[in-house]
């Protein structure tokens, strides 16, 4: 029964997901399922099936698995939409999980227009995030900006698919019929298209040797039976050979292909999120000038940094990337930038949570936990009373970022999900001491 309820958590039907979650909560309440006390692990960067999750996880599924695994704080992030936010935060509250939700997109950074940052082969283009949105119900300019992100992304996909279709004929896709069906709210990504191409080719060629020959010829590399029909390596190769720089469908983006960094940060701040720089691995020309990049980003409102540790250690990564990881965390500490950490889970093989007990990551855990509690505290305060990390209240209340971080970390550590409503309705006259007293009495 538990397995069936967990399966239903990934249904595209929201009512089925909600019913399954309530069923699992009841099993926890009655002692049929035991969940551990929250530990030291965190994952604040997990994509859901509202953009692309390699395991098909819904917001409710990730919340359930995070609580089941004893994560201290957990958060979702999706490309160009906030479709997961309301469901995820509600699921987190039901489960007693400290949670937050965000958005990831790509932006144009004019000051780095001649340097690759973290979007491979694309000078001036950077992945960027907003973390801790209080609501998906935006209005006015914020609503229009959010809609524009989705529209731009979907138009890029359609244009890209048209070019790739010509090359991969007869494995041609219909965007509506083959791609959009893979995601519940019409927010397809390049990874959805790769999966759709793999399935279309199998539909045409079956599981025969002809399928392997088709992909080997089209992709210019040897594709064996073990890669078929939709292995991680095949999907990655389809993306690299047809959609990324040098691929048959790739075109160099112009200045209008992505929103500007400064415009995006204005949107994120107005919508109540913390603008967050994303960092890849420190090897690109742009990231080798990380302090200059952070100075530019912070001048437009960026106040945090995101890292994906698994890219920087382990077999095949080498010592340089691990040194880069330590260096960027040190820079973040110097600049008082809270750190978002997670695994993404939008590519096969990515972990549910990082190995924080490993020799490589253990020394960094305090920074990761500190950031996680800051983002959780911001998310709740912004939801309940509009007094979050980047609010006018915070700007007046703290005479340094270090003191602000200290308070938000303490609040995030001490606040339990069942006490979140105690912070509702606070005015801008509220003091830090009064907030802490409210959640402890």
Spell out the blueprint of helices and strands.
Elements: H1 2-8, H2 14-29, E1 42-46, H3 59-68, E2 73-79, H4 85-95, E3 99-108, E4 125-131, H5 140-168, H6 175-179, H7 190-205, H8 209-219, H9 232-242, H10 261-270, E5 274-278, H11 290-299, E6 304-307, H12 318-334, E7 339-341, H13 365-385, H14 392-397, H15 401-414, H16 432-440
Parallel strand pairs: 1-2, 2-3, 5-6, 6-7
Antiparallel strand pairs: 3-4, 4-5
Helix pairs in contact: 1-2, 3-4, 5-10, 7-8, 7-9, 13-15
Features:
single chain, TIM Barrel, 9% strand, 2 domains, 441 residues, seven-stranded mixed sheet, globular, 7 strands
| Sheet with most strands | 7 strands, mixed
Total strands: the figure is 7
How are strands sequenced across the largest beta sheet? 1-2-3-4-5-6-7
Instruction: Report mean pLDDT, rounded to a whole number.
Output: 95
Overall geometry comes to: globular
Q: If you consult CATH, what is the topology of the largest domain?
A: TIM Barrel
Helix content: 40-55%
Task: State the name of the first-level CATH class of the largest domain.
Answer: Alpha Beta
What is the gyration radius calculated from CA atoms?
22 Å
The total of helices stands at 16
Low-confidence stretches: none
Report the CATH architecture of the largest domain: Alpha-Beta Barrel
List the domain count as a whole number: 2
Termini distance?
A: 39 Å
Secondary structure class reads alpha/beta
Say which CATH homologous superfamily of the largest domain is assigned. Metal-dependent hydrolases
Report the β-strand fraction as a percent range. Answer: 5-15%
Would you list the SSEs in sequence order as H and E?
Answer: HHEHEHEEHHHHHHEHEHEHHHH
């Amino acid at each position: 029964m538990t397995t069936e309820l967990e399966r239903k958590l990934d249904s595209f039907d929201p009512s089925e997901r909600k019913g399954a979650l309530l069923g699992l909560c009841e099993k926890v309440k009655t002692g049929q399922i035991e969940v551990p006390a929250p530990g030291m692990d965190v994952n604040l960067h997990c994509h859901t099936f509202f953009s692309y999750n390699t395991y098909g996880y819904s917001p409710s599924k990730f919340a359930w698995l995070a609580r089941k695994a004893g994560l201290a704080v957990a958060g979702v992030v999706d490309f160009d939409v906030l479709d997961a936010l309301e469901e995820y935060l509600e699921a987190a509250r039901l489960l007693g999980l400290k949670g937050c939700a965000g958005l990831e997109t790509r932006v144009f950074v004019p000051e780095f227009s001649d340097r690759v940052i973290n979007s491979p082969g694309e000078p001036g283009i950077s992945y960027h995030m907003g973390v801790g949105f209080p609501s998906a119900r935006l209005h006015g300019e914020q609503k229009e900006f959010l809609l524009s992100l989705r529209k731009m992304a979907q138009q890029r996909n359609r244009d890209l698919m048209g070019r790739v279709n010509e090359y991969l004929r007869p494995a041609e896709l219909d965007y509506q019929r083959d791609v959009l069906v893979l995601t519940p709210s019409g927010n397809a990504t390049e990874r959805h298209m790769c999966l759709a191409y793999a399935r279309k080719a199998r539909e045409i060629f079956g599981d025969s040797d002809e399928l392997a020959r088709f992909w080997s010829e089209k992709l210019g590399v040897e594709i064996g039976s073990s890669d078929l029909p939709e292995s991680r390596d095949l999907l990655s190769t389809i993306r690299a050979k047809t959609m990324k720089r040098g691929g048959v469908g790739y075109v160099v983006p112009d200045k209008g292909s992505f929103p500007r960094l400064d415009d995006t940060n204005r949107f994120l701040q107005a919508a109540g999120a913390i603008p967050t720089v994303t960092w890849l691995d420190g090897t690109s020309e742009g990231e080798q000038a990380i302090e200059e990049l952070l100075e530019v980003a912070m001048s437009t409102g960026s106040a945090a940094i995101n890292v994906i540790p698994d890219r920087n250690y382990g077999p095949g990564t080498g010592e340089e990337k691990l040194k880069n990881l330590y260096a960027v965390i040190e820079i973040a500490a110097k600049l008082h930038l809270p750190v978002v950490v997670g695994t993404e889970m939008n590519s096969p093989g990515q972990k549910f949570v990082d190995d924080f007990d490993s020799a490589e990551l253990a020394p960094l855990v305090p920074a990761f936990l500190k950031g996680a509690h800051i983002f959780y505290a911001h998310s709740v305060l912004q939801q309940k009373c509009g007094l979050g990390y980047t609010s006018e209240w915070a700007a007046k209340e703290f005479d340094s970022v270090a003191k602000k971080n200290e308070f938000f970390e303490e609040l995030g550590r001490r606040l339990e999900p069942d006490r979140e409503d105690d912070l509702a309705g606070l005015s801008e006259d509220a003091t830090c001491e009064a907030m802490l007293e409210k959640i402890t009495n």
